[in-house]
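thought: fold this chain, then report.
action: predict
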Amino acid sequence: MPTAGYAAAVTGVGLLTAAGVGAARNWEAVTGTNKPSGVRRPDELRGLQADFMYLVDGVDIAAELDANSRRLLDRFSQLAVLAAREAVADAGLSPSRWERDRVAVVIGNANGGLPGYEAQHTTLLERGHRRVSPMLAALFTSNSAAAGVCRDLGANGPSMAINSTCASGTDSVGYARQLLQAGRCDIAIAGGTESVCSRLIVASLCKTKGLSTRRDDPAGACRPFDAGRQGFVLGEGAGILVLERPEHARARGARVRAHVVGYGSSNDAYSPVAPHPDGAGAERAVREALADAGAGPAEIGHVNAHGTSTVLNDRVEGAMLRRVLGDHPLVTSTKGMTGHTLGAAGAIETAFTVLAVQHQLVPPTANFEEPDPQIPVEVVAKDARPARFDLAVKSSLGFGGHNAALVISRP
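observation:
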């Protein structure tokens, strides 16, 4: 166990992904032998090279949110609100009884309500400026998910949106821990959300060659670390954690699933879209997280990797993990079940890391069939792997060179 590091208690988890609605359904999906595919072919992507993505199914937004809330929240914010509600309930907290000024909200997001912007632009061109929504700037900006969660739950403490692209969710959890450590709040609702079923962004990503175009097998297209991978598959979803000061959690007798004990971040300062080939930036983030936790590499038993399913990212990350942690941690990427949810990815995968630590069970990497000889780590495949470990790492690599890492410990 670490000898240093502030141990923020994780008392609640909320998840909405293509793998399922709710944390329990998600965990069953990523660890079970019955792996439902959330890949869909939405009309918005018809005719594109990549005409499929992972979408959240099985949640009735109209039943969960009243008409006014639906009007004032874009879909990415709606997903965040519902995941936050689950996380708060899972933590055994009641918003009607908490000290509102001592509750922080930190929600990561990369693209805001991009599909909404697209729709409003079409309205401007086809129907004129008088038909553009007066709420456009408030509904579709990246901060609106955090603001929506604050309104829905009644949280008046520090509130912010973090955009470090694909590392946003991980950074949000790390920053929330810092707020708790600094005494700025007692409770922090932290995570990430994304919903970009957008013809514009998919067309652009197709041009970068970053997306998989395996249209004959969309459910098998996202295959992190596999030798046959060719690109990532977009996904939507939200992952929210409730973090508390450890003394606050103890005082109310809360169940603690795990602790966040280390956080590190860095930037490659290299490319808008690709990681630096030497992985030095990602390495700095992981080493910083270990140092913050007071943990040595040999103590890490599991890594939930960024694992996007792109050729370069997986090789860079795999080599970095071997260099920093050696060959003993069990490595997985859960993106084969959720898709790459961009700004939500780090938070969703942190939630899976928390559950892995709690249950001492490492999810397999979906669609992993043939190892890549240039990725020198032990990738868990086929079936979930029971294991004994006290510490796990979540690593994230984002567009723009953003890197972030967390160390999660058993309570």
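thought: worth noting. Residues 75-90 form the longest helix (16 residues).
final: tokens above.
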